[in-house]
Design a protein that fits this description.
elongated; 6 strands; alpha+beta; single chain; 6-stranded antiparallel sheet
Length: 212
């Protein structure tokens, strides 16, 4: 662990890729509750991987364009003198490499795919089973009415709880209680439905290039 304020600051800065990865991942994956140890380990490992990949890229650039990059050998042999004489170059390269590593980790955190059933709810599995398909949802509500449309968003809480919602985008079709005819709601672009009101939830998948 860092023993000085500067070391602590550098340590936290180098964890930026893992933090960016976690933030992006939370947007596209279920809100699964993890232990502090597991969250910390994820941030640390992702940071090490992203920083390592960027340093490998720097090594290639050092070989191909030695005059454009800092002299690592001189920095190792005389770190204090070299840092004082080339602080601007070292700072710009350090910030640039860290920025690239953070962007790489952020992009990796946004990768979508089918989530493993061990870490998500049945609710989430229904909507993410086919990530490349359009998802259409039909809901029978507790008053006997029926609402259907294309899935727009849904709560990503990992626990199967009633206090969550999903939103559908138009065209929104609706059938009133005790009626048999379903009609498209005019001038309704989207609607939100509470899971607490849903009695039956049907999901269908169509190829992403299919007409709605």
């Amino acid at each position: 662990m860092p023993t000085s304020l500067l070391g602590l600051v550098l340590f936290l800065v180098l964890l930026a890729p893992g933090f960016a990865f976690t933030l992006r991942r939370e947007r596209v994956r279920s809100g699964r509750t993890l232990s502090a140890f597991r969250e910390t380990t994820t941030v640390a490992l992702v940071s090490v991987a992203a920083n390592g990949a960027v340093l490998a890229l720097f090594a290639v650039l050092r070989i191909v364009f030695p005059s454009w990059t800092p002299d690592v050998g001189a920095l190792v042999r005389e770190p204090q003198r070299y840092a004082v004489e080339h602080y601007a170059q070292l700072l710009s390269w350090g910030v640039g490499l860290l920025a690239v590593a953070t962007l790489v980790a952020f992009a990796a955190g946004g990768r979508r795919g089918k989530e493993h059933e061990s870490g998500v709810s049945a609710w989430t599995l229904l909507f993410t089973a086919h990530p490349d398909a359009k998802v259409f949802v039909g809901c029978v509500l507790d008053d006997g009415s029926y609402v259907a449309g294309r899935l727009l968003s849904f709560s990503r809480a990992a626990e199967d709880v009633a206090d969550r919602e999903l939103t559908l985008t138009g065209p929104i079709t609706y059938r009133a209680p005790e009626k048999t005819e379903t009609s498209v709601l005019p001038d309704v672009g989207a609607t939100a439905i509470s899971a607490r009101r849903i009695v039956l939830l049907n999901v269908s998948y169509l190829p992403d290039d299919a007409e709605s």
